[in-house]
Structure formats: C-alpha cells, structure tokens
Amino acid sequence: MPARPVAILAMQPWALPDLLPPDLMDRLRTLVRLEPDANLTSFGTEAAGAALRNVDILLTGWGCPRIDAAVLTAAPRLRAVIHAAGSVKRHVGPVVFARGVAVSSAAQANAVPVAEYTVAALVLAAKRVLTRAHRFAHHRAAGDWRSGAGTGLYGATIGIIGASRTGRLVLDRLRAFDVRLLLADPYLTATHARALGTELVDVDELCRRSDLLTIHAPALPETHHLLDARRLDLLKDGAAVINTSRGSLVDTAALTVHCAKGRIDAVLDVTDPEPLPPDHPLLRLPNVLVTPHLAGSQGHELRRLGEFAVAEVERFVRGEPLLGAIRADDLNRLA
User: Which of 6, 13, 43, 314 lies 20 to 30 Å from 291, alpha-carbon distance?
Assistant: First the structure.
C-alpha cells in the first residue's frame, strides 16, 4: 500500500457529524487519503465503482451496503473494513474474509452505553420503580406505593445470559454492588466464569435463582425464544427481565401473560416484533418499560465509536493488531 492508503466512507449521512466531527476527520486525513470525500451509500453507481478501484480501507457505519463478491472484484486493493458501529453481519460475509480482508468492529465501544443502560435498569427494577411510580401517580390514596418490602438491589441475585462484550461489561460494573452474580453461556467454563466473578449455571437454573435477569446473547437459531413460556414459568414471583440484546430471544406472547398478571416486571429496549404494534399490551402495562432500541450509542456517545474506528485505522496503517478484529468464525456468534 502507499504511504497514505486510500480510504472511503460508507455509511448513512445522518451518522457522520457525530461519529466523525471535524477534529476526528482531520485526524483521519493525516492517516489516509479520502477519495472521494463524499460518503458512499451505494456501491452500484459509476462513481462508486471508480472510487472502489483504488480503495485500501473502507470505513463503514450504519447503513453500509453489503460488501459482496462484486464489490470485492471492483475493489482489488481493499485490505481492511473498519466498522464505526457494532455488528458487521449486515454488510460483511464469509467472502470478505476469504479474500484476506481485515475486519474490525467498534462493538466494544458500542457495548459501553448498553451496559450503562442495563445497570440503570437493574437498579430501577430492583426498586420496582415502574409499578410504584404508577401507583404513586394514579392510586396515591391507597398508600401502597410507599412500601419497599422485598425491594432493593442489596443482596439480590442477578442472572446474566451471555458473556458477550456487553455481558462482561455488565458483570464488571455489577462488582461495585453487593449482589450475587450468575452467568449462563455455553462457550465458557466454570473456571473462566469464576475469573469473571460469577457462577456458571445453565439457563434453567439461572431462571430459578435470579431475582433479576438480563440478556446479552446474540440472535441465533439456537437462541430463538431462549426465554420461552417454560423458562419464564421458572422465574420467581416479583422477578424482572431486562432485554437489551435482541427481541427474538424472548417469547413476547408468554412474557406478556406473566407481566399482565403482575408476576414479573420487564424493561425491554428490544422487542419481537420491533417495534411492537401501537395497541400491544406491553406498551400499556404499569410494570413494563419499552424503550425504542436506544441503549446503544446515540448522540454524544457516537463520538466514542468514531474515536475507536479512527484509532483502528491508525493501528492498521502502522501494521499493529486491531483491537476490534473480527474473525470469519466469529460471524456465527455475533449479534
């Protein structure tokens, strides 16, 4: 490659100002030659084809088109795809790895706000904030909103499904609390789990023992409805489910039944389907909070992704290992 490799941006225009503000763009230009300066949202145009002929690095983000065999043929010099967002599964497939192209993702950086959201949700769920706030607003005369019996994070058992990037960050942050931690992950050993400060159990045992359960696993055929009706039945009365991973991991119909009975609470940043229909019961229940897939990086947090991606470009240019490197066999386990 030349001293300053050629790079192209490929992402939705709305993301650019916050991902790569002027100072980060200036830093990027000291590392690479951006051609064209315009951001590509399609690889099928004549202008895109001309740019791809000389590209060494694709700096991608949300909305990057699929990088298929035709794109790789049009980009014979491509050596790296640096993704300034989380999952690469939508735009990178096995053919990219077969060509020997290095792939990196800012998923570790994107996991930070998700972990922060999760811990906040756990604290609020342990206080049963949703139900008590509803009673305070609508049934204040009854006075039952005052009672904190059986609430609070202290001494609670928290079950984490998935030792993903986010799952591990959640574990790390929860060490600051006086809680018991359980972990279910088929790829971990008990020794590894102990090193993470938790106890390895299967999903059924995790459901039976947890006061609060949080999900951080990818959407795969084997994780579809991982929390199905049978496993939701295993949860204690008063338990809470937090889901910031993928909606398909939870059987929505079964969860709705339990929440409607008031037996368990839920904080859902993802749902199945997503979004839920406007008249769905989960949107109206006082013990359920549904947020519009906002736990990941937004607003000011997007800069963290841009900083990670530009640092990855710098590491690649210097011939150093990529911190966010993705391998071909990782694709089957990514969110």
Answer: 13
Residues 114 and 245 in one domain: yes
% of the chain beyond a pLDDT of 70: 99
- 277 CB neighbour count, 10 Å cutoff: 9
Evaluate whether 214 touches 158 at the Cβ level (below 8 Å).
yes
Q: Buried b vs exposed e over 226-255: b needs ≥16 C-beta within 10 Å? A: bbeeebbebbbebbbbbbbbbbbbbbbebb
User: What percent of the chain shows pLDDT beyond 90?
Assistant: 89
User: Does the reported pTM lie above 0.90?
Assistant: yes
Q: Is the pLDDT of residue 39 over 60?
A: yes
Q: What is the number of alpha carbons within 13 Å of residue 215 lying toward its C-beta?
A: 29
Please identify which residue in the block is written with the tokens 């999900």. 215
Beta-strand (E) ranges in the chain? Answer: 6-10, 33-34, 57-60, 80-83, 102-105, 157-161, 180-184, 199-200, 212-215, 240-243, 265-268, 288-290, 325-326
pLDDT tens-digit series, residues 72-95: 999 999 999 999 999 999 999 999
How many structural domains does the chain have? 2
Say whether 267 sits in a helix, a strand or coil. Answer: strand
| One domain for residues 319 and 266 | no
- Contact in structure between 179 and 155 (CB atoms under 8 Å): yes
pLDDT of residue 1: 47
| Mean pLDDT score of the chain | 95
Classified as helix, coil or strand, 103 is: strand
Cα–Cα dist 209/154, whole Å = 15
Q: Which residues does the annotation mark as catalytic? A: 246, 274, 293
Q: Which of 111, 115, 65 is nearest to 86 (CA)?
A: 111
Enter the tokens of residue 4: 């300053």
Note down the domain range covering 253: 110-290
Say if residue 124 is in the same domain as residue 202.
yes
Q: What is the mean pLDDT of residues 51-60?
A: 96
Burial classification of residue 104, based on how many CB atoms lie within 10 Å of its CB (0-12 exposed, 13-18 middle, 19 or more buried): buried
| Contact assessment for residue 158 and residue 122, using Cβ atoms and an 8 Å cutoff | yes
Assigned token pair, 159: 């079950």
